[in-house]
Design a protein that fits this description.
Layout (H helix, E strand, L loop, with lengths): L8 E8 L2 E9 L7 H25 L8 E5 L2 H7 L12 H12 L3 E5 L16 H12 L4 H4 L8
Parallel strand pairs: 3-4
Antiparallel strand pairs: 1-2
Helix pairs in contact: 1-3
Length: about 160
């Protein structure tokens, strides 16, 4: 969080055919009460961008493979997205969780955990060690072997 206003910084990337098409980073609109809330806000915004890209592609007659994969580097948030239980500790994020869960249940997206070291969008939110920084910048500048790793899970390549 920013020390002055305590808003979390979020970053995400949407890819089409493993190439980044939407890249966003910045302070969230409100103060998150927990890291789970901050992650759910970022995931919700990312899902909205994913839906926008999907609708654009479908409007020009292209098919989009579903479910689209949404990667999250917070294991707790991933568990909440994939589980319909809301407890007193997570009730404050229930609306965002419901949005993500509905997209998941209808088969539009799937939620997956991915280590922060493998998450290119961490470039927008963290100070990274040089090897990780260089790997992520190469992804965004197109100087990596894009077809192998493309911003999703490099291990799936």
């Amino acid at each position: 969080p920013d020390n002055e206003d305590r808003r979390s910084t979020s970053s995400w990337t949407v890819t089409v055919n493993k190439a980044p098409t939407v890249v966003r980073a910045g302070a969230q609109n409100s103060v998150a009460l927990s890291t789970t809330e901050a992650e759910s806000a970022a995931a919700t915004s990312c899902a909205q961008d994913m839906l926008s890209q999907m609708r654009l592609l479908e409007s020009i007659g292209l098919r989009v493979k579903k479910p689209m994969k949404l990667f999250c580097d917070n294991a707790g948030a991933c568990e909440l997205f994939n589980n319909w239980n809301v407890t007193g500790r997570t009730r404050h994020v229930a609306t965002k969780l419901a949005f993500i869960r509905e997209l998941k249940e209808e088969g539009t997206i799937s939620i997956h955990w991915l280590s922060g070291e493998l998450m290119p969008s961490d470039l927008g939110t963290k100070n990274l060690a040089r090897p990780v920084f260089e790997r992520h910048t190469q992804f965004y500048t197109g100087r990596d072997d894009l077809m192998r790793y493309g911003g999703a899970n490099p291990q799936e390549g």
